[in-house]
Amino acid sequence: MAIHEDVTAMVAEAAGVDASTIGLEIELWYDLRLGGDDMLNLFLHFQKTFGVNLDGLDLSTYSPNEDDVLLTQCTEWVRKRLHLNSKQRYKSLRVSDLIVAAESRSWSKDRSY
């Protein structure tokens, strides 16, 4: 399998969805709601599988920690229902970002990809 398919399968498994639903622009938090321990476990598996150096990676900039996942989901749901301006709280983290990191075997703090 190519890196693209391996990463896609890994993300799909972590999110509990079919791999065919995972595209390059899928957001790990905003689309799949991967956060907290689920996100941590995904990245531990990602690091082990692809040998990616994750120095400089701060998962809390991409998703809530385990204690805040439910509260964040509820807050975002209420804001959406009330049509309140909901600025994204977390940085974008897409499947394509993981593929680039897997191919380069490193995580860039200043991701511009």
Tell me what you see in this structure:
The chain is mostly helical. It has four helices and no strands. It has helices spanning 3-15, 36-50, 69-81, 95-104.
Total number of strands: 0
**Percent range of helical residues:** 40-55%
Largest sheet: none
Structural class: mainly alpha
Q: Determine the mean pLDDT.
A: 84
Compact description:
With 113 residues, the protein is an all-alpha fold.
List the helices and strands and how they pair.
Layout: H1 3-15, H2 36-50, H3 69-81, H4 95-104
List the keywords.
mainly alpha, single chain, 4 helices
